Amino acid sequence: MKVAIHPSWKKELADEFEKDYFKNLTEFVKAEYSENTCYPKGSDIFSAFDHSTFSNTKVVILGQDPYHGVGQANGLSFSVNDGIQIPPSLQNIFKEIAEDLGKPVPNSGNLERWANQGVLLLNATLTVRAHQAGSHQKKGWEQFTDRVIEIISSEKENVVFLLWGGYAKKKGAKIDSSKHLILTSGHPSPLSANRGYWFGNKHFSKANEYLKENGKEPIDW
């Protein structure tokens, strides 16, 4: 089966693409995209892997679902296309970076610049039907992204995993904490952040300190 994903990941995930669940998932996604409006656009479904190759990946940020509004999703968790209003969770991420690192809040919510530095912005589910949050959950994407996390954990060393909120923390069970840094906090959504579970976690400076300690270039957040 041909999957339009970066060759470095295709090599790691080749066996996964031949499994029955993934073939069924592919048929489901094809049907959804032909019969409904879905996001992100087809060419962006594996965008996270195209920007952050397997060898380059040094930070993983786990999201849940792509944005389901018009023009928002671009295949990277928490990221939106240029010119799109910055969603509340991403606003809170930028506020924490400003507080943690003293960096100005950017005008765009497009996080490609992070992804190009080796930040894998991975949603647990890679597609969604327009205006229907969670509509493509439990169709096989979660099994696929669990496998992605397992492969990173087993085959790489000194990767930073940023797990925000209960859903992301559950997926963290697949990570070997003896060889990677796992940072957890509440979700940056207003509901969680305004209750004191997000701000002040200093995940961005902690991630960079760990990368530098292990001989890796820090991220320009």
From TrEMBL:
It catalyses: Hydrolyzes single-stranded DNA or mismatched double-stranded DNA and polynucleotides, releasing free uracil. InterPro entries: UDG_fam1, Ura-DNA_Glyclase_AS, Uracil-DNA_glycosylase-like, Uracil-DNA_glycosylase-like_sf. CDD domains: UDG-F1-like (cd10027). Pfam families: UDG. One of its GO terms (cellular component) is cytoplasm. It is an enzyme of class 3 (hydrolase). Keywords: Cytoplasm, DNA damage, DNA repair, Hydrolase. The keyword 4Fe-4S does not apply. Belongs to the uracil-DNA glycosylase (UDG) superfamily. UNG family. Excises uracil residues from the DNA which can arise as a result of misincorporation of dUMP residues by DNA polymerase or due to deamination of cytosine. HAMAP family: UDG. This is Uracil-DNA glycosylase. The lineage of its organism: Bacteria, Pseudomonadati, Bacteroidota, Flavobacteriia, Flavobacteriales.
